Amino acid sequence: MILFVTGTDTGVGKTFITALLAKALVDQGIDVKVQKWVSTGNSNLSEDCVFIYELLGNKSVKTIHGLQDTSAFGSYTAPYCLPLPASPHLAAEQAGVTIKTKVIRDALFRLESSCEILIVEGVGGVLVPLSRDLLLADLVADLKLPVLLVARSGLGTLNHTLLTLEVLRHRNIQIVGVLLNSQGGEDSSIVTDNQRTIAEMGQVEVFGVLPRVKSPLDALSYIAPMADRIVNVLKGMEHSIGLP
Predict the structure, then answer these.
(1) 244: in domain
(2) Is 36 labeled as catalytic in the residue annotation?
(3) pTM of the entire predicted model
(4) In this structure, is residue 126 part of a structural domain?
(5) Is residue 140 part of a domain?
(6) What is the spatial distance between Cα 178 and Cα 204, in angstroms, rounded to a whole number?
(7) From CA 50, how far away is CA 152, in angstroms rounded?
(8) Which long-range contacts (CB under 8 A, 24 or more apart) does 80-85 make?
(9) Of 14, 23, 36, 214, which is the active-site residue?
(10) CA nearest 195: which of 184, 173, 174, 210?
């Protein structure tokens, strides 16, 4: 079972949410792996994957089911790691690297076969280009991956969230739901109305709002029931992976 986690834009909290979801499921005894197809800002490893796996208690490189469980460039966990902190297409060009969908597909299938749930963290928003002729959303659609959308909870989120939902539906991508991430200091009346408006106008389930916390583990009690619901929705979805 695979879950693709995307966001309305960069810095919305995808890594934080992905880490907490994985941790909540691992704590239930579920075998979870996390993957990020393209990481930028470091040519050696995916810092996001390092953060996530360290939160899961995996502090060293291990080999599990014959697969290298590492956040290093070229691994199944992190197929592409690029030094320029920019959009994947530009970071790849600057590094002289071609992002190949076959490499991503192979890594996806291999890692998915080694666990019960594979959570794939996206990069930026869904319309971020992986190359000059391929958008992230188009690859997600080709692979038929169900998507969890992470959005900010406060002012300005309605436009970004509803636009992203339209993009996903236009490509017939299954939407698991929306999870709102608090940046802190939002007007509570706006946050409450945002949940209602996104659910009603976006015709989607909003799992709730994750409050801003000092430490990631402080949010586990909030995300655990959301994780249960997300898995239940995933199980209810009929989806397949791979090209026709």
Answers:
(1) no
(2) yes
(3) 0.91
(4) yes
(5) yes
(6) 7
(7) 24
(8) 80/37, 80/38, 80/39, 80/104, 81/39, 81/40, 81/42, 81/43, 81/44, 81/45, 81/46, 82/38, 82/39, 82/40, 82/41, 82/43, 83/40, 83/41, 83/42, 83/43, 84/40, 84/41, 85/40, 85/41
(9) 36
(10) 210
State the Cα angle at 242 between 239 and 244, rounded to 5°.
Answer: 100
For every one of its 244 residues, what pLDDT tens digit does the chain have, with 9 covering 90 and above? 999 999 999 889 999 999 999 999 999 999 999 999 999 999 998 999 999 998 988 754 444 444 455 688 889 999 999 999 999 999 999 999 999 999 999 999 999 999 999 999 999 899 999 999 999 999 999 999 999 999 999 999 999 999 999 999 999 999 999 999 998 888 899 999 999 999 999 999 999 999 888 888 888 889 999 999 999 999 888 644 444 3
Q: What residues make up the domain containing 53?
A: 2-236
Amino acid at 115: C
Cα–Cα distance between 1 and 91 in angstroms, integer?
A: 30
Residues near 89 by beta carbon (within 8 Å), at least 6 away in sequence:
99, 129, 130, 131, 132
Domain count, the chain: 1
The per-residue pLDDT for 240 is 44
Q: How far apart are CA 17 and CA 68, in angstroms?
A: 24
Domain of residue 180, CATH code: 3.40.50.300
The residues near 223 (Cβ < 8 Å, ≥ 6 apart) are 17, 20, 21, 24, 210
75 in Cβ contact with 68 (< 8 Å): yes
In a domain, 241, yes or no: no
